[in-house]
Design brief:
heterodimer, A: 288 residues, 6-stranded mixed beta sheet, 4-stranded antiparallel beta sheet, 8 helices, 10 strands, 22% strand, globular, B: 407 residues, alpha+beta, 12 strands, elongated
Chain lengths: 288, 407
């Protein structure tokens, strides 16, 4: 794990194609009732190919609604959403399903793996709905699982995997249909510090090496600091939208963290006969 | 295929629940399959039985002996007599043969061996009417009947019982103490609706009347029509001949009853239809209850797997994909029930026909009926589609956002 001299995330040039174009996007729940909820109000922003965007905000700020909108799981009340140059805001349920299976990848806070299926089978689901043949499904599932470092765990079920490994499977599943946009909803929210850093390292690597466009929702500033751009939502509006000139290098932080942990462990074992004190922060749990 | 595998995996996660769910379908399909096979078996049993005795048979009786109904007291129906038999013999062109009958029972004895059996007094023509064949000896003759000779034709069972390996021909047996000479042995014929046709002794009508004291009135007459199609005509002729012989004026009622095997078959058919309807009703009820059970469990399953549905939709499943996933699961459930029910039903039918064969002493054939199996499976799958549709439709209409958040 040598420290990489290249920047941890891409900063694509302005002329890069736009993956996401959102214009005047509004979502109102309970329209026509005495107390309509304006989840999104006139949101306007763009995401260029290769960007790593973090969307932040408190609960109720509209960030979840925005993610659902970007994920084609919901349709706006007003405004336009161009995904990959295609207007998806007026498509039918059936067409949206096709868009999801062909251009989007989802990563969730609680992984959402199907417990009965192996890692491979979980990764094959999007391909099944995309109508990909059996042998190609297997090849691609194996390929993405290898990409996220789970070559040895292809046939394990989720219960036989650690939390970090499960989230890797989920990321592999999101990558398997070669999406133009990866949507990650609090991907580290259920993970301890170390495993969370490992997942962020993986996401940064997917962005910088493979050029994957990522939009990630998080409420942790440390996590958001790993992105190349930060959007802050408040009351259904974009409160701030600024580039991050110096994104955190997750791999470097991880290495430092491991070093500190190792030193602390050494110090503890040096005190003979004294049992190690209880520590927060999750030492060496889970992820190999 | 993938969908079926997926459904099996989902069901395997809840084996006991799946087993209980399909119980109704199993019983329903089992009933349908069993009743179908038993019905088939009954029909072939019946046609075998009918074939074992003459197809063109007509039974002639009067209500004379029936007793006390009002008609009888008013009109004083006459009993059948030998002169009626003669009248039929010579006055009915569509009738081939006729034989008056006396029924009785008695103890047949040969030395130390004996058997209690049915005795029938009849004409020699009875042998032709009933398609009897002889394994040894011959029939008694018309002359024997005329002179009231004490000769006897033994049924297969009686001959076995009284003589074993010894040749019974020309041997003398005693029937109710009266000596009779054996002249013929009938070939085995099997049962006719539970009546063992091999367990009887046939003697000349006159001998039965005089020597065995069965009385002079004819109990019943058996006649055969020239061919099957002439049975109705033969019946008319017989009625007219008897009325003429009894000198009944045209406004007098007679007590004559004429039956043929078509009517016997029809009455047996009624019983079979009754059994079929009963089993069918049980089957239909079970399928209905089973179907509701499947619907119930599928609704539970949809609720339990709301998150999975949301996830699948997020990963690109269309409404149709989700609908099919749950519909196929319901069909796999009911199809499984269908397969198990079919096997059980065949077992039930085999056991039933085996018992009936033992009870009636004649084979109830058991053959696999392909249409029955196909129908049963179609029914089972139809139950799955019908009762699985609503839960599957509900699943397909779930909002993915709410579904994903569902805990």
């Amino acid at each position: 794990m040598a420290e990489s001299p290249v920047p941890p995330v891409l900063v694509p040039p302005n002329e890069s194609p736009r993956v996401v174009e959102v214009e005047h996007l509004s979502k109102t729940y309970g329209e026509g009732t005495p107390f309509p909820v304006h989840a999104l109000r006139d949101v306007w922003f763009r995401v260029r190919q290769g960007e790593f965007v973090a969307v932040m905000g408190h609960s109720g700020s509209g960030k979840s609604t925005l993610m659902n909108m970007l994920g084609c799981l919901d349709r706006p009340t007003k405004g336009r959403y161009l995904l990959n140059g295609q207007d998806v805001s007026r498509k039918s349920r059936r067409e949206l399903a096709a868009v999801r299976s062909q251009t989007l990848g989802f990563v969730f806070q609680s992984f959402h793996l199907l417990p009965r299926l192996t890692a491979m089978q979980n990764c094959e689901i999007p391909l099944q709905y995309g109508g990909v043949g059996r042998s190609e499904r297997r090849a691609r599932a194996e390929e993405v699982l290898t990409r996220v470092g789970l070559k040895e765990k292809l046939h394990r079920r989720p219960t036989e995997l650690s939390g970090g490994q499960q989230q890797r499977v989920a990321i592999a599943r999101a990558l398997v249909n070669r999406p133009r946009l990866l949507l990650a909803d609090e991907p580290t929210g259920n993970l301890d510090t170390r495993t969370g850093l490992e997942i962020l390292t993986l996401l940064q690597d997917l962005n910088s090496s493979d050029g994957l466009t990522i939009v990630m929702v998080t409420h942790e500033p440390d996590v958001a600091a790993c992105a190349s751009r930060r959007i802050m939502m408040r009351d259904g509006r974009i409160h701030s939208d600024e580039a991050n000139p110096q994104p955190t290098n997750a791999r470097k932080v991880l290495n430092d963290f491991l070093k500190v942990e190792a030193e602390r462990e050494a110090a503890e074992t040096a005190v003979a006969g004294v049992s190690p004190p209880l520590e927060g922060g999750g030492r060496g749990r889970g992820q190999s | 295929m993938i969908a079926v595998m997926m459904a099996l995996q989902a069901l395997a996660a809840n084996k006991l629940r799946a087993a209980l769910t399909i119980l109704g379908t199993v019983i329903g399909v089992g009933c349908v399959v069993a009743l179908w096979h038993i019905g088939d078996s009954g029909r072939s049993y019946m046609s075998n039985s009918l074939a074992s005795i003459g197809q063109n048979l007509i039974f002639i009786s009067t209500r004379y002996s029936a007793g006390e109904d009002e008609d009888q007291r008013r009109f004083k129906f006459r009993p059948l007599t030998l002169s009626d038999a003669e009248a039929i013999k010579f006055g009915c062109p569509s009738v081939k043969d006729v034989s008056p009958m006396l029924f009785g029972s008695g103890q047949a004895v040969n030395g130390k061996r004996f058997r209690r059996t049915q005795i029938r007094g009849c004409y020699a023509s009875y042998m032709q009417i009933m398609n009897y064949e002889f394994s040894a000896g011959v029939s008694f003759s018309d002359a024997d009947v005329k002179s009231g000779n004490r000769v006897a034709v033994l049924g297969h069972v009686v001959a076995q019982e009284l003589f074993g390996a010894i040749d019974p021909i020309k041997q003398v047996i005693r029937i109710n103490q009266v000596p009779f000479t054996v002249v013929g042995i009938l070939k085995p014929k099997g049962s006719f609706f539970g009546d063992n046709q091999d367990d009887r002794i046939l003697v000349p009508f006159t001998s039965a009347a005089v020597h065995l004291g069965f009385g002079r009135n004819v109990h019943m007459m058996f006649a055969s029509a020239l061919e099957r199609g002439l049975i109705p005509q033969a019946k008319n002729e017989i009625r007219l001949a008897i009325r003429k012989s009894q000198k009944l004026s045209s406004d007098r009622k007679d007590g004559i009853e004429l039956n043929d095997l078509g009517e016997v078959a029809a009455s047996v058919d009624k019983v079979l239809i009754g059994i079929t309807m009963l089993l069918g009703a049980i089957g239909a009820t079970s399928l209905l209850v089973g179907g509701i059970g499947i619907m119930n469990i599928m609704l539970v399953s949809v609720t339990e797997r709301t998150k999975e549905i949301g996830l699948r939709v997020a990963l690109g499943a269309t409404d149709f994909n989700v609908l099919m996933q749950f519909l196929i699961e319901a069909m796999v459930l009911s199809g499984l029930g269908g397969v198990i029910g079919t096997i059980g039903g065949i077992g039930m039918a085999a056991a039933t026909t085996a018992v009936l064969t033992m009870v009636t002493g004649q084979v109830w054939p058991m053959e696999l009926s392909v249409p029955a199996l196909v129908t049963a499976m179609i029914f089972a799958l139809a139950v799955g589609v019908f009762f699985g549709f609503y839960p599957a439709w509900r699943a397909s209409r779930l909002d993915p956002i709410t579904a994903l958040r569902h805990e």
